[in-house]
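Query structure, 74 tokens:
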């Protein structure tokens, strides 16, 4: 009968290929996760800095409305 694994001479070769593929996949996913948290952290720090700067600018404008017309699209 023809072999069940056409690209691989034996089930052992297939398992070796799968293990190597799994290791490569895991490395890619780990790197993706690291990049995500790096970018997410930078984004959150930028937001935090904006929030810290907001009270100072609000105090300078003394008594401005919460929303401006441009923010509401008017």
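Result returned for the query:
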């Amino acid at each position: 009968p023809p072999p069940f694994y056409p690209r691989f001479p034996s089930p052992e070769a297939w398992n070796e290929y799968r293990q190597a593929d799994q290791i490569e996949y895991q490395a890619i996913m780990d790197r993706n996760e690291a990049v995500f948290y790096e970018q997410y952290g930078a984004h959150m720090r930028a937001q935090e800095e904006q929030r810290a700067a907001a009270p100072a600018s609000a105090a300078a404008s003394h008594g401005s409305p919460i929303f401006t017309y441009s923010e509401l699209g008017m």
